[in-house]
Amino acid sequence: MEELTDILVGLEQRINAYRSRFQELEKKRRRLDDEIATIKKYLELAETLYRVEADKAKLASLSNQIITTDDSKGLRPGPVMDVTDQSREILLGRSKYVGKSVPQAAYEILRESNRAMHAKELVQRLIEGGLQIKGKTPLTS
After folding, report:
1. What sections of the chain are H helices per DSSP?
2. DSSP class of residue 79?
3. Residue 80, pLDDT score
4. Which residues of 47-58 are buried (b: 16+ CB within 10 A; e: fewer)?
5. What residues have CB less than 8 Å from 37, skipping those under 6 apart?
6. Cβ pair 130, 91 in contact under 8 A
7. How many CB atoms lie within 10 A of CB 101?
8. Measured distance CA(20)–CA(49) in Å, rounded
9. What SS3 class is residue 1?
């Protein structure tokens, strides 16, 4: 009977050790999934900015050709709008808080706004900044 008790105790210890290790690995996987999502966003952002900059260079080249052609006719084209800066602002704004914890991102928002905010407005800014809030009711999460 004592042997059976020893076996059961040993198995319980193994089960607890496996559970503990399983939970550690699950946490690590969630962190890695978050990191992967962040890297994907940054990669997407970098590729988009690259395309925008390449297009901007093409536009500048074409613009210079048009200016030289129009100068011979005595015409002056209007100023070319800087699309890159606008695109960069939009893209960076949407991934501003990706990869950060909710408290870190909330602190950043409050520090930047330099004023008190209602939780609803804070949650809206977090979501607009690319942060995923996993709770069903974000205001109480």
Report:
1. 2-73, 83-94, 102-113, 119-128
2. P
3. 45
4. eeeeebeeebee
5. 98, 99
6. no
7. 11
8. 44
9. coil
| pLDDT tens-digit series, residues 70-102 | 555 555 444 444 555 555 555 555 667 777 888
Cα of 36 vs its chain's centroid, Å: 10
Q: Which amino acid, 65?
A: Q
Share of the chain above pLDDT 70, in %: 74
Cα three-residue angle 131-87-93, rounded to 5 degrees: 20
Number of Cβ within 10 Å of residue 138's Cβ equals 17
Mean pLDDT estimate for the chain: 80
Which pTM value belongs to this model? 0.40
Query: Side chain identity at 126, as an amino acid letter?
Result: L
Q: Domain locations in the chain?
A: 2-95, 96-141
- The DSSP symbol for 96 reads S
In order of 24, 52, 95, 126, 138, the CA distances from 131 in angstroms are 24, 24, 8, 5, 11
Cβ neighbors of 130 (< 8 A, separation 6 or more) are 41, 94, 95, 96, 97, 98
